[in-house]
Structure formats: C-alpha cells, structure tokens
Automatic annotation (TrEMBL):
GO biological process: transmembrane transport
Native source species: marine metagenome
Membrane-spanning parts: 39-58, 110-130, 142-161, 167-185, 220-242, 278-296
Signal peptide extent: none
Protein name per Swiss-Prot or TrEMBL: ABC transmembrane type-1 domain-containing protein
PROSITE patterns registered for this protein in UniProt: ABC_TM1
Broad class of where this protein is predominantly found: membrane
Pfam family, one: BPD_transp_1
InterPro entries: BP-dependent_transpt_permease (IPR050366), MetI-like (IPR000515), MetI-like_sf (IPR035906)
Length: 310
C-alpha cells in the first residue's frame, strides 16, 4: 500500500522529464531550421516575428500611445513632427503617433489576412476533398460554383460590396473576403484530392471495404492539407496588399481605425510638409510583403530539395 505514492511520484517526474526533453528538442530543431536559412531569409523571419508580436501585444506595450489620440487638440502635441524621443517615428497631420498607428495597423492587416487564409484553408480542404474524391454530381456542382465565383475579379467584387455597405468593420471585411477567397482554395484542394485519390493506399483502402467517409477523413484530407496550406502562405502577402488597397481607397476599415493603407492615403496630402508619415507605412508594407514571399520561396525550395532526395 505504501508504494503507491512513491510510484505515482516517480511516474510524474518521468513525465515531466519527457515533456522538458521534447520541448528542448523542438527548440533545437527550430534553431537548426533557422540556422539553415540564408541571411535575408533570417532577416525576414526576424522582421515578421517582430511585426506579429507587436500586433498581438500592442495593448500591453509600455509607453505606447493611443493610436487615435490627437494631442494638438489639447495643446500637448505637435502635428507633422519628425522622429523624437517621445515619438520615435514622428507624428502625422493631426499629431497621432506614427509608431503606434503602424503597430495597430499591423494588427488589422494580420487579422484580415490570417482570417481569410484560415477560412480558405478550411473550406478549400473540405470542399476540394469532397469534389476531387467523390466526383460525379458533387464535383460538377462545386466546380460550376467555383467557376462562377472566379469569373468575378476579387478586387472589383470587394470594392463593389464595400461601397454598398454603410458600416465597414473589420469583421465585415473578413466575411466579404471569405466570399471571394474560398473558390481559389477549393480549386487547389480539388487538384490535390484528385492526385491523392489515385494513390495506392487509397486503392487499398477501397479494396478492403473502408467506407468512403472514412477514406475521405483518414486518407484524403490529411494529404490535401499541405498543398492548401502552401497556397495559403502565398496568399497571405496578397491579402495584406488587398487590405491596404481597400483602406487606401477609403473602402477598408473605417476611420480613425489605423491601417497601413489609410495611413499612406492620408500622408499624401502633406507630402511636401512632412515625408515621414508616408515613408514609414510604405516601408513597413513593402518589407512585410517581401518577407512573406521570401520565406515562402525558401520553404518551397526546401520542400523541392527534400522531395528530389526521396
């Protein structure tokens, strides 16, 4: 009877050691992957890490001003000020802190793009797998719907719907984006499902009498996911540009919500007075999009090399 607590304690200690060992192993693998990256890809990874962490932790960053605070109204702010100790990147034409608006603008861009990609991956995997595996009426119906949706340019559709809406919150823009993003992911998922459906392990599963639903869930979906995920990573950069374009045209999130596109649009008006409000969001947007594309290209090359080795 007395050996039970001792046995439980030993088992718990062993489990903790296993967890710490697995955590250390994951960190070691992450360091190994980072060490194999080219120099510019490392810079891009660090940059994206900073952008994501700043966007997530914006509300708790010490000393970060309210992005919509217009100090000149209360006599304690300067409009179109250059970089200084109190405003590291300067202020805009209504004395709002540019660094603060860049960080909160990053949150808007990331929420818009990540939400769109997640919705696209979910629907692309599900509908694409159903279409490519079941074929028949389900395939023809889904592909007809996809063809109809793809016949409308996404940007034109987003501009049209955004113009018709009286209120344009971030959640509304995400839902509108989902309407136009799912067909592209579904087409990628269908192509991957068609390829997987002809593999030997799927044929073997059919031969032993496995149900179609089980094959779809256990064999098709897991093998379709990597292809759809890769397409999603490529789409991230496009969606960031799309959100900035909508905001630049005044059809994105409503003012005064910070967005890189709206910051660029507002800064054009005072370009001859102060160039910094235009420079910082432009550089941030360009480098963020470049970083996504650079990392995706590196991952694609890495996967291609590993596939060739196999």
């Amino acid at each position: 009877m007395s050996s039970t607590p001792l046995t439980t304690t030993v088992a718990g200690s062993a489990a903790e050691e296993d967890d710490s060992a697995s955590t250390a192993g994951r960190f070691a693998r992450a360091r190994g992957v980072f060490g194999k990256m080219p120099f510019f890809t490392k810079c891009c990874s660090v940059w994206l890490t900073i952008v994501v962490l700043a966007a997530v932790l914006a509300d708790v960053i010490p000393g970060l001003p309210d992005p919509n605070y217009q100090g000149f109204i209360f006599g304690d702010g300067e409009t179109n000020a250059g970089p200084s100790a109190s405003h590291w990147l300067g202020t805009d034409n209504v004395s709002r802190d540019i660094l603060s608006r860049l960080i909160y603008g990053a949150r808007v861009s990331l929420i818009f793009s990540i939400s769109g990609v997640c919705i696209g991956i979910f629907l692309g995997c599900l509908l694409g797998s159903i279409s490519g595996f079941l074929k028949g009426f389900a395939d023809s119906s889904l592909m007809a719907a996809v063809d109809v949706m793809l016949s409308f340019p996404a940007l034109v559709g987003l501009l049209f719907i955004s113009t018709m809406l009286e209120s344009r919150g971030l959640a509304t823009l995400v839902l509108i984006n989902a309407i136009f993003i799912w067909p592209r992911f579904t087409r990628v998922g269908r192509a991957a499902a068609l390829s997987v459906s002809g593999q030997d392990f799927v044929t073997a599963a059919k031969a032993i009498g496995t149900s179609r639903r089980r094959i779809l869930v256990r064999e098709i979906l897991p093998n379709v996911f990597p292809a759809v995920l890769a397409f999603g990573l490529v789409t991230m950069a496009f969606l960031i540009v799309l959100e900035s374009t909508l905001s630049f045209l005044g059809l994105g999130v409503e003012i005064p919500t910070a967005s890189w596109g709206s910051m660029i649009a507002q800064a054009r008006q005072d370009l001859l007075i102060n160039v910094w409000p235009l420079v910082w969001p432009s550089v941030t947007l360009v480098f963020t999009v470049y970083s996504f594309n650079n990392i995706v290209d590196w991952l694609r090359e890495r996967v291609a090399v590993r596939s060739a080795a196999l």
